[in-house]
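FORM 7B: Structural annotation worksheet

SECTION A. Query
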Amino acid sequence: MKLTPLAKLFITLVVLGVVGYTGYHYYGDKLKDWSQKGSGGGGEAKRGGTDSAGASKDDFNGLKKAADPDRNTGVSGVATANVGPGKLGRPLVVGINTWAGHAPGIVSNGGLEPDPKAIYKTRYGLDVKFVLLEDPQAKLTAFVKGDIDVMWDTVDSWAREASTLAEQGFAAKAIIQQDWSRGGDGIVSLKTINSVEDLKGKTIATTRYTPSHWLLLYLLSQSGLSPEDKKLIEKNLVFTNEAPLAAAAFRGKKVDAAVTWEPDLSGAVKAREDDAHLLVTTAAATNVIADCLVARKDVIDKAPETVAAFVHGWFDGIDELARDPASSNAIVAKALKLQADDVSGMLSGLKLTPFADNALFFGLSGGEHAQFSSLFDTAFIVWRKQGVVSKAVDSKDYVDSRFVASLADKYQGQKVVEPFRFDPKAAKDPKARAIVNKSLTIYFTPGSDEIMTGSHFTLDSLGDTMTAFGNTFLRIEGNTDAKGSAKLNKTLSQKRADSVKKYLEEHFSIPDSRFQTIGQGAENPVADNTTEAGRQQNRRTDIKVVLNAN
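SECTION B. Predicted structure
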C-alpha cells in the first residue's frame, strides 16, 4: 500500500509526539536542568556580584502575586492535615541565633535546655534543645552533619541555601514562619539622604547575600532610579563580613549609608545622631523579610508527630508571650544572654506570626499564590542573577506546611492582626517623607479616565509595592501636558489618578485610607511643553511611597 503525503505527515507527527512525551516523562528533570544552565541557572556560581546585570523591578515580579491579607475575617477553609505517626525518641535539636523571633520556642521550652515544667514537656511530652549558632555557614554545616534537626533562616536566605543543599542531594523543608521583620532591619543614612533615589552616587555598606543585601536590592528595584543608576550602586557597594561591621563602617564615617539589623541599626543612628537617621526600615517594608524554621527531611519523615508538636508548642509560646510578657522576656533574656529590656526592644522590631499568619503565609486558606512561594522564588531569581546559586530550586519542593495545617481545627476563625493605623490626614501632610519616588507611563483612552489594558502590568507592579510596603501611604499624582483647557486638564488628571487608586483597591484589597490622589493638570511639568517630546514626558503618573508615622 502506498502512503499519501498527508498520511506520511500524520505518522511523522505521531512519532514525534511519542518521542517527545517519552523524553519529557523520563528525562524531564534533566532537560529542565540542562535548559536552566543555558539561561544562567546552572554551571559554576560566579561570586562577587559586581559584574551582574543589577537587580531590576522585573526580578521581583513574583512578589505581586501575594495579596494583602483580609484582616476583617478569620481564617477559614483550611483543611486539617494528617501528618502520620512517628516520634523522634530523643530531644529535638534546634539551631537558633541571637534573635527575638525565637522567643516563642524558648518560652515553651523554659530556656535552651529541656525544662520538665515547661509547655513543650507538660503538654506534648516533648524534649527540645536549642543551640546557639550565630554564623550562617556553621549553622548550615551542623544541619547537614545532623548535629541539629531544625535550623533558623529567612526565606530569602533559604532560597539560596536550598540551592546549595540541592547540589549535595540533601533534602530539607520550611515548616513554620516565625515572624515578619517589622523595623528590625533597615538602612541608616546621612540625614541629607531622604529617599531611596537619594542613594545615587553614595557609598553603602552591607553584608553580601544576607537579608540586608536582599532588602537593599528590593528597595532599589522599587525605586525611580534608572537601570544604569541601580547597577552603579550595586557595583560600588562596600561589603563587610558581618552585618555589625556594616554599621561600624557608618559609625566610623567611612560610608554614607549602611544596611543592617538591630541592635546595630539603632546603635548606628545614636552614634551619629546629629547627622544620621533611619532612611527606611521593615516597619515600612513590612512583607519583605520573613523568618522561618527549616527541618531536615529525614527528621520530618521519621518523626512527623514530633515536628507537629514542636509547631503547636511554638504557637503556644506566642500566646504565653502575650499573656505574661515580663516573665517570658526574662526567660528569653537568660537564654540569649541579653537584658530583658533588650528582648522587649527586639520584639518591638518584628511581628510574631501565629497560626492565622502562617495559614496566609503558606497559602493554606486559599489563593493562587502564597507569600512563602512568592518570596522564595523571587529570591532565587535574584540570587541567580547575582551569581551565587547554581542549582535551580522551586519553592514547592522546599516547604512542608502540613504541620501548620494539622492544627487548623484548633484555630478556626483566628484573624491576622496588624497594628497599622492609617489617618488620611497624615497622607496629605506636606512634611510626610516619600521614601520611593518614581514616574510611570499609564495609558488611558484619549480624553477619558479609562485605563487601557496594556497598562495593567504596570499597575500590578504598584500592587506589589503596596503589599510589600504594608505600612505606607501611596500618593498618586496625575499630570498632563499644557495643551487644551487648564481646568479640563486638572479635572481629567484627578479622575485618572482616582482610576489608578480604584484599580489597586479592587485587585489587591488595599483599603481606601492608604491612598492620596492629586490631579496636577499641567502645573508640574518636567519638560518643555512646546515640543511633542516634552509634552510626552509631562503626560505621566508620579508615584510616591510615603511613610506612615502611626
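SECTION C. Observations
The domain at 424-547 is CATH 3.30.1330.60 (60s Ribosomal Protein L30; Chain: A;). Confidence is low (pLDDT under 50) at residues 1-52.

SECTION D. Sign-off
Analyst initials: ____
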